[in-house]
Amino acid sequence: MNRVCKALNIKYPIIQGPLAWLTNAKFVAAVTNAGGLGTLGPAAGQNERFRDPDPVKRHAMTVERMRNEVRKVKKLTAGTFAVNIIPANGGNDGHTKPLIKMMIEEGVPAAVYTGSEVYPEIFQMLKDHDIKIIYRAQNPTASNARAAEENGADVIVETGFDEGGTLPKQVVGTFSIVRMIVDAVDHTPVLAAGGITDRRAVKAALALGAEGVYCGSVFIASEENRTAAKVKQAIVNSTADELLLFRTKPAYYRSLPGPFADHLQELSDQGVSRDEIGKVMGGLYGLKRGMVDGDWDQGYVSLGTGITSIHEIRPVKAIIDDLMAD
Fold first, then answer.
1. Whole-angstrom distance, CA of residue 296 vs CA of residue 264
2. Of 4, 13, 154, 277, which is most buried with the most CB atoms under 10 A?
3. Residue 259 has what pLDDT?
4. Range list of β-strands (E), the chain
5. First to last CA, the chain
6. pLDDT of residue 278
7. How much is the average pLDDT of 37-60?
8. Coiled-coil intervals in this record (predicted)?
C-alpha cells in the first residue's frame, strides 16, 4: 500500500493545499469523500477579517470560526481531513496553540504544518494527540526536511517555484526540489507540490521518487470550490505564459492580469521595495477580494504555472479520478 495513504488513511496519495480564503467545509469534504485529503485553510469559511484591536480576541474569534467549520466537515464526511497551522515565534504567536487545542478537542485527524522553521514543541503537541503531521516548508531545504523527519513528520511536502500563492525564495522548480528532498530524507514519504494539474505531472512526480502530490490550483477550478465563477472561467481560458510575476514580501507572487495585479507588476518593475509592494498588495486579503469576491480592481488572482492543463470546471471527484487515473 502507498505509504502516504497508509499514514493518513486515505484512498489516494493526494492532498489539497489550504488555499487561504478559498476553502470551506463543503469543498474540503468533497476532496476527502473523493479519496484525497481535504484541508481547511486559515480563513476557511470566513468572509471578512477580524478588526478587533485586541489580538487575543481576534485569535479567539478566528479559532471559534474554524471550530464551526471543522464541525461542518465532520457532518459531511467520516474520512480524514486536515486543518492548516502556520506556527511562528516557536509556536508562541497567540494563535497556533489555541488552534491546536481546538483541533484536539474536535478530534481533527491531521495538520498541514506550513512554515520553514521546525518547532519541536508544536510537533510534540500534535503527536501526543495522534494528529498526523504533513510538513510543508515555505522555503524547502534538505536541512528543514531532515529536521521535520527527525521530529516525527508523517509526510513531507516539497514545493517548487511552479506553485501559486506565496512563492519560495529559491527559484527552483518542482521536479528539481523533489529529487533533492527525496534523496535527503531517510524514511518519510515525500509529496510533490507546484504545477501538478494533470496525470502526466503526477506520473512525473512519482518517477522522481515522490509518493504522492499536493495540489492547489487544479482544485480552485472545481465546482465545489468557493472561488468566484468568473475566476474559474478565467483559469480555464488562460495559460501559464499569461501569469504575472512580481516581487513582494517575503519573496514573489503570481497573478492573472487585472487592474490591481497589473499595478503590482508595475511597482515591481519600477524597483519599489518588497515591503512597500506587500503593503499595497494587502496580504492574503487581496486574494480574497480577487478570488472570492471576483473584484480585480482591488484584488489579485493567485495561481501556479500548471493552469495551462486546466481545460474545464469539473467536480472535485472528476479531478481526483483524472489525476490518479494511471
1. 12
2. 13
3. 98
4. 14-16, 38-40, 81-85, 110-114, 132-136, 155-159, 190-193, 213-215, 244-247, 252-255
5. 15
6. 94
7. 81
8. none
The answer as to whether 54 is a domain residue is: yes
Q: What's the grid cell of residue 44? A: 476557511
CA atoms in the 13 A half-sphere facing the CB of 60:
6
52 DSSP β-pair partners: none
Query: With bands split at pLDDT 50, 70 and 90, how would you rate the model's confidence at 58?
Result: confident
Residue 201: which region, alpha, beta or left (left: phi > 0; alpha: psi -120 to 50)? alpha
Residue 214 and residue 256 in one domain = no
- Residue 277 is classified by DSSP as H
Task: Give the phi and the psi of residue 165 in degrees, each rounded to 5.
Answer: 75, -155
Residue type, 18: P
* Mean pLDDT of all residues belonging to the chain: 95
> Cα angle vertex 255, ends 231, 263, to 5°?
110
Position 233 in a domain: no
219 band by pLDDT with thresholds 50, 70 and 90: very high
**Closest to 152 in 3D by CA, of 106, 178, 179, 121:** 121
Secondary structure (H, E, C), 132-162: EEEEECCCCCHHHHHHHHHCCCCEEEEECCC
Phi, psi for 137 (deg, rounded to 5): -75, 140
144 and 193, same domain (yes or no): yes
Range of the domain at 279: 244-302
pLDDT tens sequence across 11-26: 999 999 999 999 999 9
* Alpha carbon 307 to chain centroid, angstroms: 16
Place 67 in a pLDDT band, splitting at 50, 70 and 90. Answer: very high
Q: What is the pLDDT of residues 87-128, one digit of tens each?
A: 999 989 889 999 999 999 999 999 999 998 999 999 999 999
Instruction: State the CATH number of the domain containing residue 141.
Output: 3.20.20.70
Count the domains in the chain.
2
Residues 30 and 130 in one domain: yes
One-letter amino acid identity for 325?
Answer: A
Q: Could you tell me what percent of the chain has a pLDDT over 70?
A: 98
Angle at 324 between CA 323 and CA 326, to 5 degrees: 110
